[in-house]
Amino acid sequence: MAPATAKATPTKKITGAGVKKAGRPPGKGRKGKASQAMAKMQAYFKENRSKYEKLDFKEQQKKLGEEWKKSPENPKNQA
């Protein structure tokens, strides 16, 4: 039977050789804009959900999504 303890694997030595890739500059990421747009969309949905109280949730989402695409509050429409 094999021993129950595992043998430690030797760690690789980290060398400074090779090409270093430059990362994104701080504060210039795409995710910030996307998350801001998502927050604006969620706020828009919350404000306007009362227009479609009689519809079920899925239908509300469809209608609000159609409105959001045309809305001046949508960052894609501001450019």
Order of helices and strands: HHH
Structural class: mainly alpha
Report the sheet with the most strands, covering strand number, pairing sense and barrel closure.
none
Q: Give the overall silhouette.
A: elongated
Low-confidence runs of at least 5 consecutive residues: none
The counted number of beta strands is: 0
Query: Taking all residues together, what is the mean pLDDT?
Result: 84
How far the N terminus sits from the C terminus, by CA atoms, comes to: 69 Å
Strand content: under 5%
Question: Portion of residues in helices?
Answer: 40-55%
Radius of gyration: 25 Å
Number of helices: 3
Helix and strand arrangement:
Layout: H1 31-48, H2 57-70, H3 75-78
Note down, in words, how this protein is organized:
With 79 residues, the protein is mainly alpha-helical. It has a domain at 31-70. Helix content is 46%, strand content 0%. The protein has 3 helices and no strands.
Name the features.
79 residues; elongated; HMG_box_dom_sf; 3 helices; HMG box domain-containing protein; mainly alpha
Brief overview, please?
The chain is mainly α and 79 residues long. It contains 3 helices and no strands.
